[in-house]
Amino acid sequence: MSEDQGTIFPSMTEWDTRQNPALLDTNPPLVQGGKDYHGLSDQIGSIVEADVLKTPTKYWITLAVTASITGLLGLMLAYLISTGVGVWGVNRPIGWGWGITNFVFWIGIGHAGTLISAILFLFRQKWRTAINRSAEAMTLFAVMCAGIFPLVHTGRPWRAYWLFPIPNTDLNLWQNFRSPLIWDVFAVSTYFTVSLLFWFTGLVPDLATMRDRAVGRVKQYLFGIFSLGWRGSARHWRHYEKAYLILAGISTPLVLSVHSIVSFDFATSVIPGWHTTIFPPYFVAGAIFSGFAMVMTLLLIARWLLNLDNLITMKHLENMNKIILVTGSIVGYSYACEFFIAWYSGDIYERFTFLNRAFGPYWWAAWSMYSCNVFIPQLYWFKRMRTNLWVMFIISITTNIGMWFERFVIISTSLTRDFMPTSWGFFYPTWVDMCTFLGTFGLFLTLFLLFARFLPMIAISEVKGVLAYEKHVFKGEEVMVK
Amino acid sequence: MNLEQFKDKLGIGEDKVYAAMGAFSKPDDLVDAGRKIREMGYTKLDAMSPFPVHGIDEAIGVPFSKLGWLVIWFSAMGTATAVLLIWYIGAIDYRLVIGGKPFFDFSYTIPVAFELTVLFSAFATFIGLWALNGLPRLYHPSGNYSQAHRASDDLFLLVIEANDPKFDAQGTVEHLRSVGAADVEVVAG
Question: Which chain A positions have a beta carbon within 8 Å of B51's beta carbon?
Fold first, then answer.
């Protein structure tokens, strides 16, 4: 019976472990540095409250660089819209070159934010609290970058409202709901809206903290208005926790659906290499894989610049690396599965497509993708690798290189060489393609820098909840970590 | 109605009493004190804390949130909107033959129906959350308490509202002190 209890209530074993200070190395507390509640408010709030004029010069220099790159994006978009989609390298047989590659890439990046805020919440992973705010913000910015590509790819973005089923007198048309492209419109716009609502809901209690700490009229008014009069009443928290649970509950299937629907754009076609049922889970795993890598890149920089080592601890980073290992291995398994099914199907086009991927003219892209996504993350089986900051920083970047190549390989190899060799071709990106993609990185980083400077980038109220929990579990024998 | 009468109606003003409030530094102390105060017979209680304190709802008698019941109707409305919209467009208003596919079939409504279900639920949750909380709100008398600004930082406040039948300024202050509250004050409306 006692053994059964161990399996039914695994938390009990964890509790026992935590009682023993000798095991602190294996299970360290999530909030370190001997912070109390006020200390947490101070540490996170002071980043936001620091005088704007006294912001370190390195911040302004970084911001100037990223803002210039954003300006480049603006120029490229203006050039594309005023000239036509022909300025991209898309032409027969490639109608979906870099634009859609970048769209899928950025949407995928966003998925980690929702995974951290929703799925890890439902699984009661308390370590998520230190990283969820910035990951959710990253989701919003990534989806903004993603949205640009299909929008301008339409050629006439000022007609974008034709994508939605609103009665229009200039068109007198309805959308075709049998096409996965319209599903994509609904999926991506819902995803952005729900992520925004979820992010703002989580932000309100912290805005109230900032309001109560604010010095100066402007800050008091701004934080006062956006915190909506939140006063942390037990009646507020009860609805708030319910709302948080509902939003997490609906975001969980939402995030799985978004990349599934993105993959339908490919999977419902008849192109060899696209027409496979493995696409939805394979795309979702890849999305979470690349998104976690991006969260890792951003957090490692933020942790270093803003001295957040005591809140974003090695345990947080190691947990994220474990998720990167798992999702990377799922992606590797999917690659293997695709190759096996291509052979097993007996379909000559399918077999050719996969041989062409690995050994055709895009072999370099395919092998970059296999190395970055499948082989390199296997280093994370070793604890020394999972806990080495340089290793994780490099792997977080190679992972995103690999995941970008994955989308490029899927789109380019299948479209350049499908059924008839007479209609084969090759895809060459133009300088506009490259500068537009670079420009979205500028937009993404600019928004993230502004967010990290002017809003609390760690969920203060949630980390306080974890602190209270840990003190409760330690039952008074508070163990301070050196 | 002039401003004074309006304030009277809302129970706002220096001459009104909103509540007696006291502060605790630990969440567990707040829950224990809340339970004791409730056992003394007070019913109009509230608590303010920088993060959700577990167990406070039962301790001071805050009922279960009904937000879920509100949201589920909007979820169903989202599903219905999507299916009806796609049916009306495909089968009635704009019958278009595409690859011999049927004008309407449930199977291809699933993605959009799912997304609209989520979208409607999210808006219902978001708007419902603020509506049930009575927010946004520009003024609340609890802000007159000298330690109110610390309720979002490191203090846990217990509130006994003046409209409680058992409320009596001096006695209630004593009761709050007896359960361990610090900085007990009678707060103006």
Answer: 205, 237, 461-462, 464-465, 468
Contact between chains at B65 and A241 (C-beta distance less than 8 A): yes
Q: What is the mean pLDDT of each run of 10 residues along chain B (189 residues)?
A: 77 81 89 90 90 88 89 95 93 88 91 96 95 88 87 90 84 88 85
A101 band by pLDDT with thresholds 50, 70 and 90: very high
| Mean local confidence (pLDDT), A99-123 | 91
CB contact under 8 A, A464 and B51: yes
- Predicted pLDDT at A197: 95
- Answer yes or no: are the C-beta atoms of B19 and B141 closer than 8 Å: yes
Residue A367 has pLDDT above 90, yes or no: yes
Looking at the complex, report in whole angstroms how far the Cα of residue B5 sits from the nearest Cα belonging to chain A. Answer: 23
Q: What is the pLDDT of residue B113?
A: 95
Assess whether pLDDT exceeds 80 at residue A229: yes
> What is the CATH topology of the domain spanning B3-64+155-188?
Alpha-Beta Plaits (3.30.70)
pTM of the model: 0.90
Give the list of residues 6+ apart from residue B100 with CB closer than 8 angstroms, or none: none
pLDDT for residue A25? 64
Tell which of B115, B140, B147, B161 to mutate to test the A interface (max A CBs under 10 Å): B115
Q: Where are the domains of chain B?
A: 3-64+155-188, 67-133
Instruction: Provide, as residue numbers in chain A, all residues whose Cβ is less than 8 Å from the Cβ of B27.
Output: 468
Nearest to B129 among A37, A182, A201 (CB): A201
Q: Give the bridge partners for B19, in sequence order.
A: B161, B187
Pairing of strands B156-161, B45-48: antiparallel
- Residue contact A190–B118, C-beta within 8 A: yes
Residue B44 makes CB contacts below 8 A (sequence gap 6+) with B160, B161, B163, B164, B167
Per the DSSP assignment, residues forming a β-bridge with B48 are: A233, B157
Given this model, what pLDDT does residue A184 score?
Answer: 93
Residues in chain B closer than 8 A to A265 (CB atoms): none
pLDDT (average), residues A414-427: 90
Answer yes or no: do A233 and B46 touch at CB < 8 A: yes
Closest residue to A177, CB basis, from B48, B90, B153? B90
Quote the CATH superfamily of domain A29-474: Formate dehydrogenase/DMSO reductase domain (1.20.1630.10)
Q: What is the pLDDT of residues A127-186, one digit of tens each?
A: 888 899 999 999 999 999 999 999 999 888 888 888 888 877 677 788 889 989 999 999
CB B53 within 8 A of CB B32: no
Q: Give the number of residues written for chain B.
A: 189
Using CA atoms, how far apart are residues B21 and B30, in angstroms rounded to an integer?
12
| Residue A255 burial (CB count, 10 A) | 27
φ and ψ of B19, to 5 deg: -170, 170
Sequence length of chain A is: 482
Whether the CA torsion A312, A314, A318, A319 is positive or negative: it is negative
Rounded to 5 degrees, what are φ and ψ at A123? Answer: -85, 5
Count A/B contacts: CB-CB distance under 8 Å.
187
Is residue A439 within 8 Å of A69, Cβ to Cβ?
yes
